């Protein structure tokens, strides 16, 4: 019995820097992903509303709508969206998964290509649904536990 081939993962890259877009697009297409690009947060949001993406890769610093604002708007549309946030200022700005809403935060550096491919592959293959954070009393210890 033949099984249908898995659909090609669809990736959206959002960055106002066209050179960065082209490099990341080429990198991800080379390993077999279908990639669409957007040059602003607004354009990325419109693309996200129009079709389904397995992973969104967004830059942090963009005019009018930064990457964190884009992530917040994506999460309203789809709380389970998979998102990678890129920035050259991860440490100075204190960017993390917890305070940005991204699934992965990556520093722009010479290691970025390898880290980006690894992160996108992991997120494409992740099938778990996000659970909302809830506080539940731990009866044994008498304090709240975040699950």
Main sheet: strands, sense, barrel: 5 strands, parallel
Low-confidence stretches: 131-147
> Taking Cα atoms only, what radius of gyration do you get, to the nearest Å?
17 Å
Distance between the termini: 41 Å
Beta-strand share of residues: 15-25%
Dominant shape: globular
Count of individual beta strands: 7
Number of helices: 6
Write a brief structural summary:
The chain has 147 residues and is an alpha/beta fold. It has helices spanning 18-30, 41-50, 67-77, 90-93, 97-100, 112-125, and strands spanning 10-14, 34-38, 55-59, 83-87, 104-107, 135-138, 143-146.
Describe this structure in words.
- The protein is of the alpha/beta class.
- Helix content is 38%, strand content 22%.
- It has a 5-stranded parallel β-sheet with strand order 2-1-3-4-5, sandwiched between helices. It has a two-stranded antiparallel sheet with strand order 6-7.
- Helix 2 packs parallel to helix 3.
Element layout with pairings:
Elements lengths: L9 E5 L3 H13 L3 E5 L2 H10 L4 E5 L7 H11 L5 E5 L2 H4 L3 H4 L3 E4 L4 H14 L9 E4 L4 E4 L1
Parallel strand pairs: 1-2, 1-3, 3-4, 4-5
Antiparallel strand pairs: 6-7
Features:
alpha/beta, five-stranded parallel sheet, about 150 residues, globular, two-stranded antiparallel ribbon
